[in-house]
Automatic annotation (TrEMBL):
Species classification: Bacteria, Bacillati, Bacillota, Bacilli, Bacillales
Gene3D superfamilies: q2cbj1_9rhob like domain
Keywords: Dioxygenase, Oxidoreductase
UniProt entry tagged with the keyword Oxidoreductase: yes
Protein name as it appears in the record: Phytanoyl-CoA dioxygenase family protein
Length: 288
C-alpha cells in the first residue's frame, strides 16, 4: 500500500487469509458463489426457526401465499427489511464467523449493508438480474494481484431445505466477469445452474453474478439475507446511522462492532481488529 493510501485506510488484518482456502478463492473467482455448510450455530438455528415460525403465522403465509381478499390473488412473496433488529437470533446469524471470514476475503474493508427475511410461497419468485456487463458500480467485481474485490456480496441463509429441483437459486456461473451483455431469456437457460442448500447453510455470492429463483416446492421457501459492501458504500435500507444501536452494544475491538460501523465516504479509517474472525469468542452465538 502506498504512502497516500496509508493516510486514507487502516491496515488490513494479515490473518484473514488463514480462514479461507485456495480452492475456495478459486471457486468464488471462477463461479461467483460459494456454499458454506452448517453456517449457523445450532442454538441460533433453533431460535431462528421458532421466531420465523411466529412471523410466518403472524403474516398468514401459507404454501398458497398470503390471502389478499376475494378480488385479489394471494401474495406469493413477502419480505421484511432490517430483520436484524427484530430478534437477537437474526443478529447472531448475520455475524456467523464461518461466513464473515469468507466475506472479509472478498471485500477488503467489509461492512454489513442490509438484512431481510424472505418468504416465497409455491409459485413465488424473483426475476433474473445482474451481469458484469453493462457495468454497475454498486455491484462491480474485480480480482487483481490475487485479491478479490467485490463491491456487493450477498449471503442467503437457508431456513428450510432448498433442494436442487424446486426452489434452488438459479445462477449463471462466471457471469460476474462477463464482458458481453446477457443473451435472450431463452438462450440464458443453457448457461444456468441451480444451487441447492440444506437448512442452516449459507450461499455467499457476488451480486454481479446473474441470479434469480422460483419456488415450486409444496412448502414455503424461507431464507434470511444479509449483504455486505465496502466501508465507503451507504446502507441500502437506512441512513448512515442505521446500525448505531447494535454498534454501541457490541464490545470494543471485535469483528461484530467492525461490521456494524457506519459507512465513511472515501476514507474508511475505522481500524480492523487484528485477531482472526473465527477465533472471536461468542461471535455468531446467542448471548447467554
Amino acid at each position: 500500500m502506498n504512502v497516500t493510501m496509508k493516510n486514507y485506510m487502516p491496515a488490513v488484518n494479515e490473518h484473514l487469509e488463514k480462514d479461507i482456502e485456495l480452492r475456495e478463492l478459486y471457486a468464488f473467482d471462477l463461479n461467483g458463489y460459494l456454499v458454506v455448510e452448517d453456517a449457523i450455530d445450532p442454538d441460533v438455528l433453533e431460535a431462528l426457526t421458532r421466531k420465523v415460525d411466529e412471523i410466518e403465522a403472524e403474516i398468514g403465509m401459507t404454501v398458497s401465499g398470503i390471502p389478499s381478499g376475494d378480488e385479489k390473488p394471494n401474495a406469493k412473496n413477502y419480505r421484511r427489511n432490517n430483520i436484524i433488529f427484530e430478534d437477537p437470533a437474526f443478529l447472531a446469524a448475520a455475524m456467523s464467523p464461518k461466513v464473515l471470514a469468507k466475506v472479509a476475503n472478498f471485500i477488503k474493508y467489509p461492512k454489513i449493508k442490509s438484512t431481510w427475511l424472505d418468504f416465497k410461497a409455491q409459485g413465488g419468485g424473483i426475476g433474473f438480474h445482474s451481469n458484469h456487463t453493462p457495468y454497475t458500480p454498486v455491484d462491480a467485481y474485480l480480482c487483481n494481484n490475487y485479491q478479490i474485490h467485490c463491491n456487493l456480496v450477498t449471503v442467503c441463509y437457508a431456513l428450510c431445505d432448498i433442494p436442487l429441483d424446486g426452489a434452488a437459486l438459479t445462477v449463471i456461473p462466471g457471469s460476474h466477469k462477463s464482458n458481453f451483455p446477457l443473451p435472450s431469456d431463452e438462450e440464458q437457460k443453457a448457461f444456468q445452474i441451480q444451487v441447492p442448500m440444506k437448512k442452516g447453510s449459507a450461499l455467499i455470492f457476488t451480486h454481479d453474478m446473474n441470479h434469480g429463483s422460483f419456488n415450486e416446492l409444496p412448502y414455503t421457501r424461507r431464507t434470511l439475507f444479509t449483504s455486505f459492501s465496502t466501508g465507503f458504500s451507504a446502507n441500502t435500507l437506512g441512513d448512515d446511522t442505521l446500525y448505531d444501536p447494535l454498534f454501541e452494544q457490541a464490545a470494543d475491538n471485535t469483528w461484530e462492532k467492525y461490521f456494524l460501523r457506519r459507512p465513511k465516504g472515501d476514507r474508511d479509517t475505522y481500524p480492523q481488529p487484528q485477531h482472526r474472525i473465527t477465533e472471536e469468542p461468542g461471535l455468531g452465538q446467542l448471548r447467554k
